Amino acid sequence: MKHFEYLEPGTVDEACGLLKQYAGNARVFAGGSSLTILLKQGFLQPDALINIKKIDELRRIEESGEDLVIGSLVTHHDIEVSEVLARRLPVLCELEHDVANIRVRNMATVGGNIASGEPLTDLPCVFITLDATVRIANTSGGRTLALEEVFVDYYETQLQEDEVLTHVVIPPLPAHSAIDYVRFSSSSVVDKPCIGVAVRMTVDPDGGACREVRVGLGCVAPTPMRARNAEAALEGQPLNDDNLQKAARAAAEECDPMDDLRGSERYKREMVAALVRRLSSRVYDQARGGRS
Amino acid sequence: MAISERPQSAQDGQRLDYQAKLTGRAAYLADMKMPGVLEGVVLRSPVAHAWIRYVDTSEALKVPGVVAVYTKDDVVQGTGIEPYYGPVFKDQTIVAVDKVRHVGDPVAAVAAETREAAEEAANLIVVEYEDLPPVMDVQDSVKEDATLVHETVRIPEHGFADLAELKPIENTNVCTHFKLRKGDIEQGFAECAHVFEDTFILPTTQHVALEPHGCIAAFQPDGRVNLWSTTQNPFVVRTQLANIFKMPVSKIRIMVPYLGGGYGSKVYPKIEPLTMALAQKAKRPVRILLSREEVFYTVTKHAAFIRMKTGVKADGTFHAREAEVFLDTGAFAEIGPRVAKKSAYTAAGPYKFSHVKIDAKSVYTNKPPAGAFRGFGVSQSAWASESQTDIIAKALGRDPYELRMQNIYDEGDEFVTGEKLWSIGVKGCLEKVAQEMKWGEPMPAPDDPSKVRGRGLAALIKATITPSISCAAIKLNEDGSVNVFTSTVEMGQGSDTAMAAIVADTLGISLDQVSVLGVDTDVVPYDLTTSSSRSTFHMGKALELASLDLCEQLRKFVSEEHGVPFEETRMEGGKVLFRENALDIREVLFNHFGMQGGTLVGRGEVKTSTVDPDTGDKTTSSFWFVGAGGSEVEIDKDTGRLRVLKHATAVDVGRVITPLGCQQQLVGGAITGMGQALFEQMVWDNGILVNPNLVDYVLPALGDMPDEITPIAVEVPHKNGPFGAKGIGETSLIPVAPSIANAVDDAVGVRIKDLPVTAEKIFLGMLDK
Ligand SMILES: Cc1cc2nc3c(=O)[nH]c(=O)nc-3n(C[C@H](O)[C@H](O)[C@H](O)COP(=O)(O)OP(=O)(O)OC[C@H]3O[C@@H](n4cnc5c(N)ncnc54)[C@H](O)[C@@H]3O)c2cc1C
After folding, report:
1. What is the CATH number of the domain that holds B279?
2. In terms of residue numbers, what domain contains B116?
3. Residues of A in contact with B763 (CB under 8 A)
4. What is the DSSP string of A42-90?
């Protein structure tokens, strides 16, 4: 591992200032679970690590008006045991039981999970189906982006060299809605996910038509993605075998999986179809049953 | 000799090392502190196969803190060493000399004051390679136009007796070819109503012992050298080092702290020759601790490609078995030739065949060297044999349990080598497993309609290394307590406790009076190896004999002192008895030495041979270990995902010595087997290992385990084992994979012939049916 400066800014502004100063040769260091591996393998050789863990304001999970705001330093384990989330979005707490292992969950953060641009993750897929946005701080005032737009390619995001991701903002779920997520591992239960599928929808109390359908797919494209053709296949109609099948096939076609250790392209497409089918009907039932 | 009663002292289940290990105070090699030690870092080949044109160390030597850099020049010109070594063939060198033969092959090493300096220097070494086409699997490697991994292979003068007939086949990549023949195979097939032919595949895997390999070497002012090493067979390593460095073994002292797991990955020289060479050149103590990634480049389990052809009579009698077993031994022979040989012996499984033709080839490729792995070639051949047994049962409409029972070995049956099998409780193991799995009863339907269940069985037979030697000594102290001197390496298997229990029970003293020293080749007597599930049987017996030797000495003192005939004395409960008298050990010693003091030494040795000393019969193995396993699985039809719901494993242990230790070995082996069955494989892309880390090389986790893994100890005592005990370390691993594949076929009718059994293979198998 190459020698590097280790800096601990106390505020977000300070962190952005330092990043600017190093002009691309510094890295934000949050939980370090991803970064440390890359440093050790020599894939990254920054001149400085900017450890942001002293910035307490980034550690909170808060309700702000109707919105939920999750600070970028919130860890996987914080989410797993959060009372606010257990009440508002239990799907997040539940999925975290299966993320990595307790050692990684204790260290790794939401910000790192997103900013690393890692392809095999869970939270971003769910956040996308929740229409989440992220707040980004920089040396020129900051900006807000739809989470979906943050991701560019494998390990590549929109974040610029002086930017710190500070919060994920999740708008409230409409009434008569439900959301659920399946984390599908093709081998050991602790392996990174092979596929993640999240489905959210609102169901008309009368008539039972699906509205605001979101189908999020993780691990089957360079970035987490929405399966918009699948969403369209369900939108505006009550769920039935026919449109369920259409949605499943559409999702399988519009994703872009790679052959890798966790499965072939063919298998992954088949799994996307199977899981979209299974999950959509489960979420539909939940939304109709009034559970949100 | 009559078989003694079951040992009593370890019945409560406590391990001697549990407190030290639970509290983290047990010291492993990496915990050791040594004044003045330099850190050694290895530069490894980034390419799978290439000529080395030159190695330039000038920049590396300029890094502050660097003391020595070791390269091929030191191997060939330097210090009067023998450049070539290896347990079977001399095809290894301390660092690569002419060629690199796999990614991760050591090319140079740096010793420096700090690890950082050593790493920096290693990165500054310039090596120019001239690429050669790599051969990455056995099928390519045996083709006529394949690039040779070794242009020539040197054969040592004094090799292992059991491998003497095996030689590399010149101008090919075939390292060895072992042939096993019985009867007339063509006639055999001609006599059969049904003939089955299948091909089975296993990938390369790694042991992933918790503790990576490490070594510390420190030369003494008088020219002797002390090494601390993570080795399962210090005496074999000592011999190899003595040959390389041209020193008498008396000047090489190897000490082995607690080992953090071995599973075969720590037999034969690994990092020891390089550590010692670096220490010699640096004239300072050096330690090398491998990273997890380096472990993947150091030793693996043989990948295999197996063609199996089986002829069966109309009534289901197994009659003819032909098998061609290709084992991928990687870049160096290591112990691969013996792995292939052992694989051949059991390619007919635990079944009676009249005609057998087995060809087992150990084949060089440009992968890291494959060596011993818990199961030693048998998990490969059993994968093929036990899978095919179920293929046959299904085709004939027979129950797989019944078909096995019809053909399985029994006491006194003739093995494929022609010798008779004794102490062979495989039938009992299969029976017990079937009972435990509720074989024949309907399975409860899963709650979830997308899930289906199935059950599968598998059985096995395996040999232990023969001939071999175990010597042991026990020191009886003036207070009646004893120190045990054994070279059996405590690597988590619980051997210290088992050995102490055998001593305590034979002497009739309590377990807390017994201390096991730990391994130091300058002190403990010779033992061949802690592997091959041999320690309890061989070393345990040597210690029983050493204890009996002490008993005899004590009785002799009493007989002389009290004028009683020796035959009228006996030892029981830690006392020497004669007439109405009972003298405890301490009194006997006091009387003998005339004061509180003195030492008695008891000696024991076990040497096995390929001829049974009692009967004169051929014995390929000093004992056979046999067992059976059963799995019940549940499969999600929509995804192919499999869960093992239950696994039962029965092992003929001969006699239980330590009940808890025995259960842990059986369950532990089964868990390792689940990893091999379901997840583990090293994957290459263009000669590069894709997953030399524990994120992408997937190990089984607790959450993957069935709710129940039931260990069953079947006891068919062996006449030569201590208290009748046999080895148990490897047995339970072997049936896991085939029993799971058989259960998958039972559940969804998909036959998986290549490991691991993944969700994808099951799913696509269902889809493509
Ligand atoms: C063994 C293992 C198993 C895993 N399994 C899973 C899994 O099942 N599911 C899953 O989703 N993930 C999994 N991961 C990935 C892990 O969750 C992510 O790596 C983690 O969330 C990253 O968080 P971190 O705080 O450790 O990031 P770090 O390693 O500190 O940083 C990662 C990257 O993000 C940048 N960064 C971090 N925070 C910010 C910020 N606030 N603003 C700007 N840039 C930032 C860093 O500069 C760096 O480039 C696993 C990781 C490991 C090691």
Report:
1. 3.90.1170.50
2. 37-132+223-261+265-288
3. 267, 270-271
4. TS---SEEEE-TT-GGGG-EEEETTEEEEETT-BHHHHHH-HHHHHH-H
